[in-house]
Amino acid sequence: MPNEQQIPHASELPAASVQLNHTAVYASDRHLSAEFMAAVLGLKVGAPFGPFLPVDLGNGVTLDYYEKRDEPIQSQHYAFLVPDGQFDAMIDRLEALGVTYYADPRHTEPGRVNSLFGGRGAYFTDPDGHNMEIMTRPYVRP
Fold first, then answer.
1. Which residues, including other chains, have CB under 8 Å from residue 135's CB and lie 6 or more apart?
2. Gap between the Cα atoms of 80 and 101, Å rounded
3. What is the pLDDT of residue 4?
4. C-alpha–C-alpha distance, residues 121 and 101, integer Å
5. Nearest-angstrom CA–CA distance, 29 and 10
6. CA dist., res. 113 & res. 122, Å (int)
7. Could you give the CA distance from residue 99 to residue 111 in angstroms, rounded to a whole number?
8. 22-27 and 62-67: which strand pairing?
9. DSSP sequence for 10-70
10. pLDDT per 10-residue tile (average), the chain, 142 residues
């Protein structure tokens, strides 16, 4: 582990130049999970890239679905900022897929959306148990 003198202080790092490019999403069936998320968000699944099956988001970030069959999938949380004008269509697609959505992250308010920060949001589970969130307004942080 590097000593403290080798680690730059936060004020020395150009935060505006750091962006998330992609993240791996573990799935027991990468095709099923990628197709599911692309269908809900109204996106397309890209061509395979090595062991990954990508879903390109509108801000240059890619969800790279990676098949992991040798052990259980650890549930993660993924939140998507979506256009307000497309939110209802996403809810309609969840309903058409028979997926229950919730107003809260603990999934105690089924069939409801929230109104956090002046927008709308909902949580749902993907085929591998990841807790997915769609929201029309970003969280207001202190």
1. 79, 80, 81, 82, 116, 119, 120, 121, 122
2. 14
3. 55
4. 10
5. 39
6. 5
7. 10
8. parallel
9. GGGS-GGG----EEEEEESSHHHHHHHHHHHHT--B---BTTEEEEE-TTS-EEEEEE--S
10. 58 73 97 98 97 95 95 96 97 98 97 96 98 96 84
Total residues belonging to the chain? 142
Q: For position 7, what pLDDT does the model report?
A: 61
Q: Look at the block and give the residue holding tokens 């403290």.
A: 4
Global pTM?
A: 0.88
21 dihedral zone (left: phi>0; alpha: psi -120 to 50; beta): alpha
Beta-carbon contacts of 43 under 8 Å, excluding residues fewer than 6 positions away, are 37, 55, 56, 57
Q: What is the spatial distance between Cα 37 and Cα 132, in angstroms, rounded to a whole number?
A: 9
Distance CA 41, CA 81 (A): 10
